[in-house]
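Two proteins were folded this term; both appear here.
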Amino acid sequence: MRLITVFAASGRQGIAQVRQLTAAGFAVRAISRSPDPFYGESFPNTEIMAADLDDPAQVGKAIAGADGVFLNCPLMSSHNNLKRIETVGTLARETNVPRVILHVPLWLPDQPVGQPGYDNGREEALAMLRSHPAATVFGGALFMDNLLTDWAFPGLVNDSVYRYPHNPNLECNWISLDDVARFMVIALDRPDLIGQMFTIGGPERLKPPQVAAILSDVLGKPIRYNPYTPREYGAVLAKSFGLTGDALTQVTRVFEDFYIFNNFSPLKPFAVDMEAVLEKIPLKLETMHEWASRQEWKITDKPRPPAG
């Protein structure tokens, strides 16, 4: 049974990757310092190991003997991500780990676009491709699972309000994190994908009122779309990570600028042309309705990731 190391395994991205890897018959080494990395969920053939991405010795131990690596980098300390990526890629190359798959939770532009988040994500992807000769990078444009976070979920369930910082005409190809993980699992056995990076999205291009209509149908009650301004959203997201003071102000401004760009750029970062991707990597992607229908839309005491 092949072993895949998954970094940041206790985040929503990582949990979906562990889920899809074990479903596909892989053993998993889940890297997390959390005592309950899967929030009560369990997976077969999975060991949990604590490791610090900023410590090369611990990274080396985490990837030792692995047949592949799935790398997710921290969002809230992204200034160190280039170094982390280079460390993982270099050590994986030096220890003959056959495949490394990086997930960057962003659109990956072909050229710099002048928006720091996207330009940094592009540099991270290129760093991975430089660091390991058998790397593949996927950039997920926008995740359905974001609607399960503490800044979105209670409003939907308790107040029947869908809140997001999207202008009402913004078109988005929402993708589930399980589908992101499926792309990554497929790539492990596709040598023709080595050295490439892909932006991936879901099968539908939806505007916010269409998302609200889908959620209304699934939840069985009218859901009203009440958009955040980019600044409001930045503050809500920063607070969801427990930030205060100057850090809250700084992160609020970062996400405000990011969503002003997303709302008005002619480059349309959230509108992903999936035809070419699916021609190269055939995969049946779940729709927003299918994804929403398999979620538990009620407030419970069950633990869950607070944000990303």
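Next, the second protein.
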Amino acid sequence: MTMLGDKATHDQIVNMRQELNLDKPVVKQFSIWLTGFIRLDMGDSLLWKEPVIEIIMSRIEPTFLLALLATTISVVLGVPTGIKAAKENGEFFDKCFSLGSLISISLPAFWIAIILIHLLCVKINLFPVAGYRSVKTAGFLVAVYDLLLPAIVLGIMHSGQIARMTRTTMLDVLQQDYLRTARAKGISERLVINVHAFINALPSIVMVVSFSFAGLLGGATVIEQIFNIPGTGNLVITAVYNRDYPLIQGVLLFIGIIFVFTNMLADIICTLINPRTRLE
């Protein structure tokens, strides 16, 4: 009825059910769908009348660039701050860090976005308020410029979690005996912390960064809606509003696959960083 409209005849509905294989048993329907999925055929969108996989592929570019920028900002902000907080454990900076990271995690994305839009877009006209110009039409630098403000919003949000994990892991590593031995041999404190301790804390940091990146690749729904970015998060909202079930199903499967492969890549990186995790 959604595809054919309210004025569809009984014969048209019967023919459409046969075309969509809805007249077959559920097991047979699932078998047909699974076979199509293996061939990257997820059916056609009810709204746009185009293959679901093509629609998803057309929305990946802004989401991927946004996720990459936001993750870079969150790592640049979070990792050095977490290291410094661990180094000054219990001191004034560490207490300020605890409060700041809690605020960063707790503040809603739309609130941070609205504040920064007012300050950086309306007041001083530094960034565009909304919209996205693709790499193909406007070039890479213009596309990055359009996504920079939403990336800053997401980077601020995710930096708190990364900083807290960095601090916790570094505190645990800094208490290990081999670091006392390194200090006893005369190695400078800066080298002990930034090299020996950080390398051993890195696997845990890589894991939390990978989760953050995978979540952003799945679609920063609220931010994409606020800044009118045509990414996968915006696509999910549009599909839900229009009850486009094949498209909803396709996007959610795409997000699930992203999480699996991102975590797999993170495990491989952690194995390369820490040889002790390798299987014999």
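Residues 140-174 form the longest helix (35 residues). The domain at 57-277 is CATH 1.10.3720.10 (MetI-like fold). These notes refer to the second protein only.
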